[in-house]
Amino acid sequence: MREQQFNYNYYLIRVSNLVRFNYREHCKKIIKILPKLENSIFYYRGVLALFNQNLKVKYHQIRDIDFGKLGLSSTDKEKFVKALDDYVLNKNYEAMNIINHYYNIFLDKMDEITKLHTELKDKNSIYSSIFSKLETRTTETLTASEVEFIANMMNKAKHFTLEDKYLTKLALFWYKSPEFRMSAGSTLSLINFKHKQVPVSYEDISKSANDILMGSISLIDKNYNRSQLDEYFANLKASPCDKKYIIACLINLTTDNIASLKDIILADDFDFTSIDELDTVVNTYNYHLFLLSYLNSKLLMAHRELANNTNAEDKYEVPTNELGEDRNIILSSNDYTSKDKKSYIERDLDDLPEECFSRVRELLTNFKVGNNSGFVIKKLVDIPDTYEIKDSDQIRIVFSKGFGNNYIIKGVFQKKEDTYRDKYVTVSKRPDTFRDANEFSNALEYSKERLEIMLNYLEENARKSNRY
Prior knowledge:
- A hairpin with a 4-residue loop joins strand 6 and strand 7.
- This protein has about 475 residues and is of the alpha+beta class.
- It is elongated and about 145 Å long.
- It has 3 domains: about 1-155; about 160-180 and about 190-310, no CATH class; about 330-460, RelE-like (YaeB-like fold).
- It has 11 helices and 7 strands.
């Protein structure tokens, strides 16, 4: 489907060039001639003025000569002055003819370019109509496959972290990508490309990572196609950490290249009327867009590989309170002002079988009083600053650590559910911060009352069973 989008952009530009090429080139040539004509006119006018000025000086100098001392008669003097007057008039007439000649050419060219602009405007209206129809038809053709692709990508990304979701959006970058557009005024515009860097971690990378990176940069500069890139990354001998580092660096390099292309387009000396130069920039631009989406898909795979290789039993032991005080339990909610409104974890109980109620109550009670027996507390690998109370019966209670002795309970679910990965992400997104001290105080009062109500509800509705 990416290739469809590429051809779509490429042929739109080709259509615009076919419609407007001859007129645009002709106008361009005439425009280049006009300054030369203007310069010629100004030059001859300047020469004429200087010539007349010099003649005037010389003329008066000659007329003031005492021809008697030269042995010339008055008749000879009059003949000489008349010849001088005729010479000045002829030179002046000659210069004016040259100026008029260039000025008439100038007017003819101005008339011609005005006529061409009128015809170009008519051609542009035809181009706009063709462009609109082509764009509509192409969009209709691609819509189904685009929607399917996006839905598939977003579905795969549901269980990733916020950072991974951001990267997934970059993988879909080509769908909302900037496009080169030839406007009716024969200008080339580029929709604003947001130049964002992917965070690069230098931790845990090997000494050979930068050497592999240099080889990878050389590779992507050769305009490799997808099959060649697939073969290269499939045979890349690097650890998951190194792969993540290398791909992130390549993404940042590619975004820099795209930003540089924008600068080239916006530069004053860029000749957008040159078809060869335009094709070169468009082809380079499209290759980097393809490369950006391809590398981001590889980065998602590197994230996943790294997560799978991380020790699944990476425990986070919550410190026991030495003073023997209970932990402050805050139940996550979108409204702490109404104590009649259920918290998120209370609503989660509707999706749990009643056979789970007794165990959920036991886990919450033990956690509150600082008794960590019967369960482990694990830091979630893919979701930052989030933890789970994990027991052997597939019950998972997700929470985050607040300041001091405060813990925000975000929700509960069964891991054996088919959608448990989605549950991790959904529950982890629930509120765990407070706008001010007043909201925090309300949260404590709200949670104290709602926790008591929930524990009583769990006790009263628990159903004894060994299976759930």
